[in-house]
C-alpha cells in the first residue's frame, strides 16, 4: 500500500468516533439494536476508501463534509431497507419515520449560517477526538449518558455491567474527558 493510501486510511479511521456520534444522533435509539450505527459507519468508511477519487475536498473539513454526506445517505438506505422489513410493527415504524425525518432535515439546507454550521461541526469533531482517547467502555458510557440521555440502568443493561460499574465508568470517563478537552483548549461547560 502506498504512503498516500496509508494516510487516507489513517484519516478515515480518525473520523470513526465522529461519524458514530453523528449516526447515533440521526438514528432513533429504538433502532440501534436493528440498525447498528457502528455498522453503518463501517460501510461509510469502506465506501469512502473505495470512492476516494470522488472526493473533491482538499481540506480536512471538506473531506469530513463529504464523509458526513456519505454517512447520511448510508443511514437513509439502512432505514429504508429496515423500514420495509419492519413496516408492520407500529412502534418501530414510528422510529423509522422519525429517523428518516431527522436525516432528511440534515441533508437539506440547515437553518444556521455556514459559519455556525462549521463551528458546530468543529466542536463535535473536537469532542469526538477527545472521546476517541477514552477506553471503549468509558467512551460508550459517557456518550450514551451525556449525549443521548440514557440512564445508568439502561447503560448497564446495554453494556452487560452493573449500575455501580457504570457509575465508575462515567466518573473515570468524565474526568479523563475533561482533561483531554482542557488540553485541546475546549471548554467543557
What does this structure look like?
With 189 residues, the chain is mostly helical. The chain has 2 domains: 3-113, no CATH class; 133-189, Winged helix-like DNA-binding domain superfamily/Winged helix DNA-binding domain (Arc Repressor Mutant, subunit A). It is built from 9 helices and no strands. It has helices spanning 3-14, 16-26, 37-50, 60-85, 90-107, 114-132, 136-147, 152-159, 163-183. The mean pLDDT is 80.
- The DSSP helix count reads 9
Which consecutive residue ranges, at least 5 long each, have pLDDT under 50? Answer: none
- Can you give the mean pLDDT? 80
Euclidean distance between termini CA atoms: 43 Å
Give the SSE layout.
Elements: H1 3-14, H2 16-26, H3 37-50, H4 60-85, H5 90-107, H6 114-132, H7 136-147, H8 152-159, H9 163-183
Helix pairs in contact: 2-3, 2-4, 3-4, 4-5, 7-9, 8-9
Q: How would you concisely characterize the structure shown here?
A:
With about 190 residues, this protein is mainly α.
What characteristics describe this protein?
single chain, 189 residues, mainly alpha, Arc Repressor Mutant, subunit A, 2 domains, 9 helices, 75% helix, 0% strand
